[in-house]
Design a protein that fits this description.
It is built from seven helices and 14 strands. The protein is α/β, with parallel strands linked by helices. The strands form two sheets. A seven-stranded mixed β-sheet has the order 6-5-4-3-2-1-14, with no helix packed on it. A seven-stranded mixed β-sheet has the order 7-8-9-10-11-12-13.
Length: 264
């Protein structure tokens, strides 16, 4: 059983999780533009392929949904050709599956285990690829009316006995989480700024997630923040601060957080 895990920011909601001798990359391979968030730097992609620095272990790739600021299938294909991984967790497919079809062919050719998650909202799918690791996808929909068609997998990662919840861009609808997380003690939950700012999101954090620690991620780069999310988060933290629930903001100014089990 692990005592602590290290979380490092890659870009936006892309994070590297390191613990019990494993490295898991969540939403951390994307280079498309057309949104106000950062792309994964080419230098970081090269470091991943060369197993340098924090990317010394890179065993599993996980994705919450197929939006271009979370997932670029072509980059995943290129990576697994250069450096094998133990498994890839894929979300529900979109209506334009060309890049994904190529990725699936590559994974088959390279012999990489892969799982398409994508449960219906409120349902779950769990995979335990090896001892000490279970990934449970909790079905939700993407927040925002314009993205209502897009399913988003909240990923509950159980790593060495610790429970980490990565919500991606999931909407703040209690019914998505109530059944799936009943009886689950979360060591940390990761939410985006809009989820944290919204009163319904706060209700879910308090009444359903109840994590030991909370991490706000998917922050825009300084100077490229058309939605004023940095200001929104600052005000929300002043409003919702709780002494019993530490809140971390994972951004370029503070790109690392260490999450430990209660009492450590």
């Amino acid at each position: 059983m692990s005592d602590c895990v290290d979380i490092d920011l890659v870009a936006n909601a892309g994070v590297l999780v390191r613990g019990v001798g494993l490295g898991l990359l969540v939403d951390g391979m994307h280079d498309q533009d057309g949104h106000p968030f950062s792309r994964v730097e080419a230098d970081d992609m090269d470091r991943m392929a060369r197993a340098e620095g924090i990317f010394n272990r890179l065993d599993y790739l996980l994705f919450t949904h197929e939006h271009p600021d979370h997932f670029t299938p072509e980059l995943v294909s290129e990576h697994v050709k250069r450096r094998p991984v133990r498994g890839v967790f894929l979300p529900a497919p979109t209506e334009k599956p060309e890049g994904r079809a190529d990725l699936l062919r590559t994974l088959e050719e390279q012999g990489v285990p892969h799982w398409t998650m994508g449960p219906e909202p409120g349902d779950t799918v769990s995979v335990s690829p090896e001892p000490g690791l279970t990934v449970t996808a909790i079905g939700t929909r993407h927040m925002g009316e314009q993205f209502r068609h897009m399913r988003n997998d909240c990923l509950l990662v159980t790593l060495g006995g610790m429970n980490l919840l990565f919500t991606g861009d999931a909407d703040h609808v209690p019914e998505y989480y109530e059944k799936a997380l009943k009886g689950v003690a979360l060591d940390a939950a990761f939410v985006n700024p809009i989820f944290y700012h919204n009163p319904d999101g706060q209700g879910i954090i308090d009444d359903i997630f109840s994590p030991m620690e909370l991490v706000i991620y998917h922050m825009p780069k300084q100077g490229r923040d058309p939605y004023h999310l940095a200001f929104t988060v600052k005000r929300a933290m002043q409003r919702y601060a709780r002494p019993d629930m530490p809140v971390h903001v994972l951004d370029a100014a503070a790109p690392h957080v260490n999450i430990c089990r209660s009492g450590l």
